[in-house]
Write a structure and sequence with these properties.
Layout: H1 3-8, H2 28-37, H3 82-92, H4 97-110, H5 113-126, H6 131-143, H7 147-157, H8 164-177, H9 185-203, H10 210-221, H11 228-245, H12 253-267, H13 269-297, H14 314-331, H15 339-356, H16 361-373, H17 377-390, H18 395-407, H19 411-443, H20 448-476, H21 478-489, H22 497-510, H23 513-527, H24 531-543, H25 547-558, H26 563-580, H27 583-596, H28 602-609, H29 617-622, H30 625-642, H31 656-663, H32 677-683, H33 687-695, H34 709-718, H35 723-727
Length: 728
């Protein structure tokens, strides 16, 4: 459609099909090649060797200090190179919203429309559901008279961004280009009405859509009916719109209800009661629900769709709790909706949640679980695709996606999911290595924080390989799983956990310890000084009743470790000897243990021999742990009882002494008043006053003249004041 045509003809509803299927696809070619050809060495004949083929590769080299950034360090930017500096910030962190916004403003100043469009497109790849960015993009095109491009932008963003600000902007655009006062005014009015209905169909139950409902009602009223039939038709449409709106928990539902009452009353007082009564209950429910929602949401900005990256703050935690509380409330169906409408409302709320809480994997995961439980598998897969794009290193989302693909026997896609997750973590590692090298080049020292991040990243990557291997084993068999293990173990930074996982997988595959033992042995060449790995291997040998190799492993391992590192291994071996070995061997090992660790006592070492499932009878009985615990419990009970003072009761109307006399026929009572527990709970003084009363001396210790408050009150009551004094 040309711009000339746009100026002449009213616009129809934007075609929503274009761009509706936009999704974030993985880099197919590279990933597919890796998914189908990973670990070719696994094809070699393993029967000709004592060691399996997938273990005959040369050991992974030790990780060397990174030099990745030596030739690709950060460019030195001139002070006036604002755009370059912003681009550097974005290259370092693509989720840096402030950098993106500043970059957009810089290009606006330069008035370079094509470059600005490119920036918007790049920004939207990172923030595809950012209503604020889409609105800004649309406004830029409108300012330049690019109506056709505006139509295209709305076609792309409206299906996937159910945000009231964006859709209100769309309505404003439609009303702008469809002039109801032109010669084609009736046609323009029809188009606008269609768009309002289109908006209400998708966002009509948004709590913030109330102003749009009111706006639509005013739009209907603005048409002047020339005939009785047209006026009647207008009244019917108004009644229908009012009755739809007042059943929805909108922010202005009370105003709409009052307006509806006035509308019906002005039309016909006789029928007004009937029409109003029909919707009264639904309105009361909606009003009650919006109040509950307001309390749940509080000051939370639920319309913000360009959130900052997660910082793990208290505020974020509170917002997450509020969203989950709101979602659970919606699922309980407080509005009493039918099953299908309830689904739509809950899904809509989830869409609002993931736009606002984009970097919270647990909310995406919860949405997927709900969709799967409500037979919406296709939508669940769509959510997952968006979720892994927003959270590229999330374990819970990628693992869930891979699990669903495995369940549906989409094995190629399952592999691609794991490979994509691995690539994302490896990319993060590359950035860390570059950062470490740059810091070392500048300061001559290695950054301890970055090194710590590299350690955790190595464990993360190993964990993904382990999960990948197990999934492939379930779906495709042990041979394919070995290929994944072979690829993972070659990484110079992979941790020992992948060897343990592979060995145990092999053992439970056929209950044969041969291959599993060889995997542990190969791993021992690399991790012989890591106590945790040696202990895993030791436990395996004990489990498979390989006593000889277990003892040999212990002896050759403890000499390579420091005393502190070897301690868990000593204690594990002591436990084994105490339970299954000979006494002589146990005594020798205990002597070695006490010689190495001076802080242990003979009693503690001896008592461990007889402990079982966490119960140590020597410690409990002979060393009195049981009795000390019982005595402490009794002491605490007594302290609690002593602090439970009898509540002081207050009667504002009758003094206690007088009340007691009255209750006993005018005679002073010698019986102590003892209130019931319920009475005490209702009339007990505040804790601060109770604490003060406890430290005051008892009344019996006051042996002088006592002030009689009752007589003073009586005196004041009976004293007559001269009238001339009262007048003053």
């Amino acid at each position: 459609m040309s711009e000339a045509q746009e100026d002449k003809e009213p616009q129809s509803v934007v075609d929503m099909s274009e761009g509706a299927g936009e999704s974030n696809n993985v880099e197919k070619k590279e990933v597919e090649e890796r998914a189908t050809s990973v670990g070719e060495e696994g094809k070699r004949d393993s029967t000709a060797r004592s060691t399996p083929a997938f273990l005959t590769d040369s050991p992974a080299p030790a990780a060397q200090p990174s030099t990745a950034a030596s030739s690709t360090g950060k460019r030195k930017r001139l002070p006036q190179d604002v755009v370059g500096k912003l681009e550097d910030r974005i290259a370092e962190d693509a989720s840096d919203i402030d950098a993106w916004k500043e970059l957009v403003e810089e290009y606006k100043k330069k008035e370079k429309l094509e470059e600005l469009r490119e920036i918007y497109e790049r920004m939207l790849k990172n923030f595809p559901t950012s209503a604020e960015t889409w609105i800004d993009y649309v406004d830029t095109e409108l300012a330049n008279g690019e109506f056709y491009k505006v139509e295209q932008l709305f076609s792309r963003c409206l299906p996937k961004v159910l945000n009231i600000k964006l859709w209100t902007h769309y309505l404003g655009y439609v009303r702008r280009i469809n002039n109801v006062n032109s010669t084609d005014g009736e046609k323009a009015r029809q188009v606008i009405s269609q768009v309002y209905e289109f908006v209400f169909e998708r966002l009509g139950f948004d709590r913030n859509s109330g102003p749009l409902w009111k706006e639509y009602i005013e739009f209907i009223k603005s048409k002047e009916g020339t005939t009785t039939w047209e006026q009647q038709q207008q009244m019917d449409l108004l009644r229908k719109t009012y009755r739809r709106a007042i059943c929805i928990p909108l922010v202005n539902v009370e105003d709409l209800w009052h307006a509806y009452n006035e509308f019906e009353t002005n039309l016909n007082k006789t029928t007004a009661r009937k029409f109003i009564a029909e919707k009264s209950a639904a309105y009361m429910t909606a009003r009650s629900c919006i109040r509950e929602m307001q309390n749940m949401i509080g000051s939370m900005d639920i319309t913000n769709t360009t959130p900052y990256p997660r910082r793990w703050t208290k505020k974020e935690e509170k917002e997450s709790i509020r969203w989950f509380r709101w979602l659970e409330w919606e699922k309980k169906n407080p509005l009493g909706l039918d099953a299908e409408t309830l689904k739509q409302r809950v899904v809509f709320t989830y869409k609002q949640a993931v736009m606002s809480m984009r970097y919270f994997p647990e909310i995406w995961f919860d949405a997927v679980e709900y969709l799967l439980s409500s037979d919406q598998a296709a939508l669940a897969n769509e959510f997952l695709s968006q979720a892994v794009h927003a959270n590229p290193t999330s374990f819970i989302l990628f693992f869930k996606k891979a699990e669903l693909e495995e369940k549906e026997m989409k094995l190629k896609e399952m592999r691609e999911t794991f490979i994509k997750l691995l690539d994302n973590h490896k990319s993060y590692r590359t950035k860390l290595e570059q950062q470490l090298a740059e810091t070392e080049a500048e300061t001559g020292a290695r950054d301890a924080d970055v090194e710590k991040k590299l350690e955790t990243n190595a464990r993360d990557i190993t964990t993904v390989y382990t999960a990948y291997m197990k999934s492939v084993k379930r779906a495709e068999g042990i041979k394919e799983a070995r290929k994944v293990f072979s690829e993972g173990r070659k990484l110079p930074y992979s941790t020992y956990h992948i060897y343990v996982a592979s060995a145990m997988m092999e053992y439970y595959n056929d209950k044969n310890s041969g291959i599993a033992g060889k995997i542990f042995e190969v791993g021992l060449k690399r991790y012989s000084e890591i106590a945790s790995y040696v202990q895993e291997y030791f436990n395996f040998l004990i489990m498979t009743n390989d006593d000889t190799n277990a003892r040999a492993l212990f002896e050759k391992s403890v000499i390579k470790m420091s005393a502190e590192e070897a301690r868990p291994l000593y204690e594990r071996f002591l436990s084994y000897e105490a339970n299954y070995g000979e006494l002589a061997a146990l005594l020798r090992l205990e002597k070695r243990y006490k010689d190495v660790y001076a802080d242990v006592t003979a009693v503690s070492v001896f008592s461990k021999r007889y402990s079982q499932d966490g119960y140590d009878p020597i410690k409990e009985v002979d060393l009195g742990e049981r009795y000390r615990g019982a005595n402490q419990s009794k002491k605490q009970t007594k302290q609690q009882q002593s602090t439970k003072e009898e509540p002081v009761l207050v009667d504002d109307d009758v003094p206690p002494a007088k009340r007691t006399k009255e209750e006993n026929g005018g005679e002073a009572s010698t019986t102590t008043y003892s209130p019931t527990f319920e009475q005490a709970a209702q009339n007990a003084l505040p804790a601060g006053i109770m604490a003060l009363l406890k430290v005051l001396p008892p009344a019996a210790s006051y042996d002088t003249v006592r002030f009689d408050a009752t007589k003073l009150v009586k005196l004041i009551k009976e004293t007559s004041i001269p009238e001339h004094l009262l007048d003053n």
